[in-house]
Amino acid sequence: MDTKQILAGLSLQDKRELYGALVVELQPSKQFLEHKLELTREKVINCPACKSSRIHGHGSYRGRNRYKCMECKKTFNDLTGTSISGIKKTQKFQEYIKIAGDTTIRKAASVLELNVKTIFDWRHKLLSSFPKSSGQKFSGIVECDDKQLNISEKGNKKLDRKAYKRPSDRTTKRGVSNDKVSVMVATDRIGNMTMQIAKIGRIDKGSVERTIGDLVLDNNVLCSDSHPSIISWAQEKKLEHHVFIASRQHVKDKCYHVQHVNSLDNRYERWVSKFYGIATKYLANYLNWFIFQESIKKSANPFDNLIRAVADNSETLDNYREIQLRYKKLINLQYY
Q1: pTM for the full model?
Q2: Helix 116-127 crosses helix 283-296 at what angle (to 10 degrees)?
């Protein structure tokens, strides 16, 4: 059998699906439960319901340790609250985690031979397990920018306007408007980064403080564009602040610039394009996913880092159930 000849006859889409299937079959990795048991040995176990550490062993079930909380009397196991909790096809779920970042929902459903709705549910449970992309506190020179993204109500069956059939149907003018959501993007020179939704429409001092205020220290040097809200916020924080206007100047003193944050913006655009548009109510989770991917891309075994992070979050299901509530809060912010 001439493998090269077979590959030459495949379309690009078929090659991608074949690649996804081979990744699932060939990539060795630890099981989800093994990572969770390692984490259990490394940290104090708390009750997912009341967060109490007063727990006792309560037997085992299907290889999972069970516990009972002495405060609220509820029982739970190693995987309670994680993205895999309640999922019956656990091996398939782990296989999906391997290919989730490189394929669409429909292609993953085809590769794993599962229903599209199942993969959709798994996608957003997985996204809900990533930590908030606030990262660590910044060090040294910090670059920040506000990024404008179109509000998308993809999948909403109860629109109060006519549905957009294509991007050209939008009547919104270029620039900032209430039909767009502002995302604060910031990074330092050693790889600490964040991307967080600020508000609907134009950012203000309050939204800048809410998103990056806790991460920027008094001794940091801030570099940004000439947005008046960022300038005002930096003055209020008494930060050393260097402002750049793209048409006039790109670098000051050979070290102050905004090239790192612009590069982060561009990497996000390329990464998110493979998903063919995402609904704004899921945007925060996609931002968390992207920042996490960026943080582990130089790791020797990024898949193990991914599984470890997913296994460690026992609040995943709570985050998953609150997606719609958080979106309503974001919409309401523009009125206050």
Answers
A1: 0.82
A2: 70
